[in-house]
Amino acid sequence: MSSKRIFASLAVTTCVNVFAVTACHAAAPSILTASDACAGLAGMSIPASKIGLPSSGAAVSTARLVLPDSSNTNGEFCEVKGFILPASPDAPKMEFEVNLPTVWNRKAVQLGGGGFDGVLVTGLGRAALQPDSVRNPLAQGYVTLGSDGGHKGTAGFDGSFALNDEALLNFGQQSVKKTHDAAMAIIKARYGSAPKRFYFIGASQGGHEALDAAARYPADYDGVVANYPAYNVTMLHLGSWNVGKALYENGGAGWLNPAKTKLLTDAVYAACDSLDGANDGIISNVKGCNSRFNMATVRAELRCADGKDTGDACLSDAQIATVEKITSPFRPGFPIAGSEVFPRWALLEGSLFHGPSTLGSRPVPANPPTSADPLLYNAGSGTIKYVITRQPEFDPLAFRPDEWKARVQQSGQIMDVTNVDLTPFRRKGGKIILTHGTIDDFITPHNSEAYYERQLARQGKINLQSFMRFYVIPGFGHGFGLFNARFDSLDKIDRWVETGRAPDRPIAVDANKGPHRTRPMCEFGFWPRYRGTGSVDSAASFTCMKS
Fold it and tell me: Which active-site residues does the annotation give?
C-alpha cells in the first residue's frame, strides 16, 4: 500500500475520530509528501465534540498546496478552507481558513476581523500594524488562520446578521473559540502535534476579538495583541450614537460641517503642537493640551458674534454645545457589562474627524444612514436597529437607552468583554500588548485607557505589569493618521512569551509617504518629548516623559 493510500484510508476515519488522523501523522510523518498531506485534508470532518462551543461540527471544503512564485511570497503552504456548521439550522455557517506552512515553526497566529465582520479573514497577509519590511506571519513559518466572524455581510455597518441569536453570539464572542478549535483539529491532523504557541492579533473589532481570546478562552492562547480594540461594542456604539444625537438635535442646528470641524482642529494644533518640543504636526503632550485648549478656549476664540451662525469662520452657540457634548463623557443611565460611563472623544486633543471618519456632509441624516452621515452614527445606528431593538426600520434619533435597558444590558453581556476577568490568563502566563492612537476618531483612545485603568484596579500594578503593556501612540488614528504607526507586534509578543522579557519602548515606523519617521512607543502615562537636538524624524531624538 502506497503512502498516499495509507493516508487516504486513515483520512476516512477522520470523519469519526480526528485523533486517528493525528496518530497517523505522528507515526509516519516522513512517509507523506507535503502535497499528499495537504490533499488528504480535503473533505475532513470535525465532530461537534472537538468544537468547545455549541455547533454541528465543521468540515473542510478545500485543501490545496500553494507553491511559492511571483504571486505568492509566503512560501509553500497548504491552504485549507471550510465551514463551522451552526448548532441551530436557521443560523448561518461560519467560514474559516487555515494556512499550514510546509516548513512550520510550531506556532500559530489567529488574525481578527473588523467592523461587523462578515468577510473571511484569510490569514495570507500581514498582521495588524505590521510594517511592510517584515515578512508575513505565514512566510515566517506560522500557521495562520481567520474566519468571517460567523456570517456574511455587506459594506458599512449592516447589522442584519444580528437578528439571528446564534450569529450575534458568534460575532459577540464565540467565533474566536470556534475558529481556534477547528484550526487545532486541522493542525493536529497535518503535523501530528498541537502548536507550541498560539497567538491572536487584531485591530478594532479584531482587537475586541483579541481581548475575548485572552479573557474568555485563556487556556487556548499564549499571547494576544489588541490594537485600538472595540472591546465594548454595545457601550462604544451607544457613545457613537450620542455623537450623532449631538449633531442632529434641534434640526441639525449644532451640526459641524467639514469646514467648521477643520476650523476647530486647526486651532487645537496651533495651540498644542509645540507642547512636546517639536513643531511636527503631532500632538504628543495630550494632558498639556487639555490645559492649553479646552471648552473655555473654544468659547473665547471661536464663538460667532452673538452666538449666531455667521459662516465657516466661527462656531455658533448650538455648535459649541455640540462640541461640548462630544468631548464630555456619555452616561446611558445604567451599567453595561459593568461600566456606567463611555469616555469623551478626543476632538479637542488632535482627532481630526475628516476622511473616513467625517462628521457627515449634511445636517439631517437619512434612515438608515449612509456614507453622507457620520461613520460614528452609522455604527451606532446599526447596533440600535439590529442588536438592541431588532427593528430594522427604527429611527435611531428616537432611541432612548432607558426604554431599552434590559435589552441593552443583555447585548452588553453578549458583545462587551469589559468586565471579564483576565486573572486566569495572567496565571497561565499569557501576555497582552494593547495599543491605541491619540487621534483615533472612531474609537476614542480614552476607551482603551478606561479598560487599562479597570485592569489596574483589579490586578494591581505589579500583577498587571507582569502580563500587560499598554502603548499610546501620538498622531495615530484608526489604522491611519498623521503618524501612521507600524510595529512588529508578532515579534514582540512572541519574544515576551518565550523569554519572559517584556517589550522595552518599541519603535513605531510611520507608514505615510515622506520622511522615514520613527517614534518611541511610550507606555500609558508617558509621552514622547523631543530632546531638543537631533532629527525630529528619529525616535532617538525623543524620550518618554511622565504625564
Answer: 204, 440, 478
Q: Which residues contact 403 (CB under 8 A, 6 or more apart)?
A: none
For residue 58, what are the β-bridge partners? 46, 84
Contact 151/529 with Cβ under 8 angstroms?
no
Task: Single out the residue of 87, 94, 199 nearest to residue 148, CA to CA.
Answer: 94
Rounded Cα distance, 518 and 511, in Å: 9
pLDDT tens by residue, the chain, 547 residues: 223 322 332 333 333 333 333 333 333 344 689 999 999 999 999 999 999 999 999 999 999 999 999 899 999 999 999 999 999 999 999 999 999 999 999 999 999 999 999 999 999 999 999 999 999 999 999 999 999 999 999 878 999 999 999 999 999 999 999 999 999 999 999 999 999 999 999 999 999 999 999 999 999 999 999 999 999 999 999 999 999 999 998 899 999 999 999 999 999 999 999 999 999 999 999 999 999 999 999 999 999 999 999 999 999 999 999 999 999 999 999 999 999 999 999 999 999 999 888 999 999 999 999 999 999 999 999 999 999 999 999 999 999 999 999 999 999 999 999 999 999 999 999 999 999 999 999 999 999 999 999 999 999 999 999 999 999 999 999 999 999 999 999 999 999 999 999 999 999 999 999 999 999 999 999 999 999 999 999 999 999 999 9
Distances (CA, A) of 513 to 130, 262, 352, 412: 16, 22, 19, 40
β-pairing, 223-227 vs 431-437, is parallel
Q: Are residues 79 and 66 in contact, defined by beta-carbon separation less than 8 angstroms?
A: yes
First-residue to last-residue Cα distance in the chain: 71
Q: Look at the block and give the residue holding cell 471550510.
A: 82
**Which one-letter amino acid corresponds to residue 453?**
E
Are the C-beta atoms of 539 and 526 separated by less than 8 Å? no
Helix, strand, or coil (residue 454): helix
Q: For residue 456, what is its C-alpha cell? A: 489596574
In whole angstroms, give the CA distance from residue 294 to residue 356: 25
Q: Calculate the alpha carbon distances from 476 to 272, 435, 512 in Å.
A: 16, 10, 11
> Is the overall model pTM greater than 0.85, yes or no?
yes
